[in-house]
TrEMBL record:
<protein>
    <submittedName>
        <fullName>Bifunctional ligase/repressor BirA</fullName>
        <ecNumber>6.3.4.15</ecNumber>
    </submittedName>
</protein>
<dbReference type="GO" id="GO:0004077">
    <property type="term" value="F:biotin--[biotin carboxyl-carrier protein] ligase activity"/>
</dbReference>
<dbReference type="GO" id="GO:0005737">
    <property type="term" value="C:cytoplasm"/>
</dbReference>
<dbReference type="Pfam" id="PF03099">
    <property type="entry name" value="BPL_LplA_LipB"/>
</dbReference>
<dbReference type="InterPro" id="IPR004143">
    <property type="entry name" value="BPL_LPL_catalytic"/>
</dbReference>
<feature type="domain" description="BPL/LPL catalytic">
    <location>
        <begin position="6"/>
        <end position="178"/>
    </location>
</feature>
<keyword id="KW-0436">Ligase</keyword>
<dbReference type="InterPro" id="IPR004408">
    <property type="entry name" value="Biotin_CoA_COase_ligase"/>
</dbReference>
<dbReference type="InterPro" id="IPR045864">
    <property type="entry name" value="aa-tRNA-synth_II/BPL/LPL"/>
</dbReference>
Length: 239
């Protein structure tokens, strides 16, 4: 799948994103916009050959299989909690794909399998947010056995319409972050499957296992009363 009418997409999302461009292939849309990209810029790519995910992992972006793009935001003054920025794009995806839920902080999943990855890069006073949503993939092409795609879950989309819907939802949710709107966190908690789970969180100096009490007002995960801002969370299946 690919963009058919970039001008139509641009016109539909201009309220939030005045500069939307598309390329067939690039190394990394995040890296491209880190080098040069004003707030309000969006770069969509059919293929990324050198993308990265959370914790430095490789981010697979096969040609025509994903909606892969990066967006540039302006950091408000004073800044809002960056933990809430990390959850905003995931909530935006659930606005468009109501079957999806979020594993803390921003893994977008359907039935416990990941359909989207999100990675942000801060360069004050800008922040670049990259996302790749698996739209149309074959089972054999999935990067892991815990991944899935919209088409594999019976969700078929028109690529341009889906791009418009996602960018519109992103614009609204990022505006909530910039304005400190508490509705963003309330809506995140409503779609966060991690709350109430028994989990193991991998930290830089070990791991912790326990029950997730909530996501606090900073966007941190609270496990048995202790808040963690960064870590790799694994939901533990009942024994």
């Amino acid at each position: 799948m690919t963009v058919r009418d970039i001008q139509r997409i641009q016109d539909a999302v201009a309220e939030y994103w005045p500069n939307v461009t598309w390329v067939e292939s690039t190394g990394s849309t995040n890296a491209d916009l880190l080098r040069e990209g004003a707030p309000g810029t969006v770069l969509i790519a059919d293929e990324q050959t050198d993308a990265k995910g959370r914790l430095g992992r490789q981010w697979v972006s096969p040609k025509g299989a994903q909606l892969a793009m990066s967006m540039v935001l302006e950091v408000p003054d004073p800044p809002q909690p960056f933990g809430l920025l990390s959850v905003a794009p995931g909530v935006a995806v659930t606005d468009v794909v109501p079957e999806a839920q979020l594993k803390w902080p921003n893994d977008v999943q359907i039935g416990g399998k990941k359909i989207a990855g999100i990675l942000s890069a801060l360069e004050m006073p800008r922040v670049i947010v990259g996302i790749g949503i698996n739209v149309a993939m074959r089972t054999d092409d999935l990067p892991t056995d815990t991944s899935t795609a919209l088409n594999l879950e019976g969700i078929e989309v028109d690529f341009d319409d889906f791009t418009i819907d996602i960018l519109t939802a992103m614009g609204r949710r990022f505006a909530q972050w910039q304005q400190g709107d508490p509705q963003l966190l309330a809506d995140y908690r409503a779609v966060c499957s991690t709350i109430g789970q028994q989990v193991r969180i991998e930290l830089h100096d070990g791991s912790v296992t326990g029950a997730v009490d909530t996501i606090n007002d900073e966007g941190e995960v609270v496990i048995d009363g202790t808040a963690y801002a960064v870590g790799d969370v694994h939901h533990l299946r009942p024994q």
